[in-house]
Write a structure and sequence with these properties.
Length: about 170
């Protein structure tokens, strides 16, 4: 890409029936270099997007969670239990979103490196998923029974997203 315009490269080769294997190998090498250059450019774009998105979303999220915290303090004891619970869900959602933005920012800084060697407590992850999806569970009338899941090696953010998608699909399509 050059200043918002896409660059398209077209390679035209004419081979005679007597083209050698070396000619064809040269063409294959050129095509591999082009594909590699495209992948590198795409990865660079993705890293820039992750960085910009993380920083761009962080301040509005901080403002929302800050005001929710102020509301909780000012209205302490004056809200009915359902309103207190809803406010708690909103604050917890903001905290989870901050963790996701931190992970997105770390991903943007580290490039394609994703920590997949961390020990992840799936019981904690599932508890967070259950809290996140409590409003959906109540809306759909679903229930969630979870046995002990233990620990696995992997990426906490990706495992959280996986479990959240599976559980929310279960609530929506049960």
């Amino acid at each position: 890409r050059t200043r918002g315009r896409s660059v398209v490269r077209v390679w035209c080769f004419c081979f005679s029936p007597s083209a050698s294997a070396g000619d064809l190998a040269g063409l294959a090498a050129i095509q591999r270099r082009e594909k590699h250059a495209q992948a590198v450019a795409s990865n660079d774009d993705l890293e820039r997007f992750a960085y910009v998105a993380s920083h761009g979303l962080r301040e509005p999220l901080r403002m929302v969670t800050s005001y929710l915290g102020v509301l909780r303090e000012q209205l302490d004891g004056r809200l009915d239990p359902m309103a207190q619970k809803s406010l708690g869900f909103a604050l917890e959602g903001g905290t989870r979103m901050e963790r996701l933005l931190d992970a997105l920012l770390a991903y943007g800084r580290a490039g394609r490196e994703v920590d997949v060697d961390a020990v992840v407590d799936l019981d904690q992850v599932m508890a967070e998923v259950a809290d996140t999806l409590a409003p959906l569970r109540e809306k759909t009338g679903g229930s969630l029974d979870v046995s002990a899941l233990g620990e696995v090696t992997g990426n906490r953010v990706l495992l959280t997203q996986l479990l959240q998608n599976l559980v929310s699909n279960g609530f929506r399509y049960h």
